[in-house]
Amino acid sequence: MIDASPIFLTKAEESLAGAESELANGRFNNCTNRCYYACFQAAVHALMQSGIRPPGRASEWSHAFVPAQFDGQLINRRKLHPTDLRSVIARGYLLREAADFRSTLVSQTEATRAMRRARLFVAAIRARGEF
Known about the structure:
single chain, mainly alpha, Four Helix Bundle (Hemerythrin (Met), subunit A), 5 helices, about 70% helix, globular
């Protein structure tokens, strides 16, 4: 079986770089989207490195499964990541939904905060040697 976790770490790094670029260029909604995916993809990588896979044959990383398992297994149960990462993915998801699907705009402040959380999240995964 091929270890796909490096693919997700590459995607996370690309998403984080994209978020940085979007923030610098004032595209706050797209920045928020990329921040969420940087965290989501980094979490998938961390879950795979810890031997956690989605249930079933499809093996799809859902937007419900990933944050639940990252928070529940890697933070709460195994204590592999700091508690300040708890709910980062879920918060990012809610902001991404607003950016992508609601008739509102993400503010510069919201995007800047999302960027800060995404940087910290990815840095914490890197610090564990998973990047």
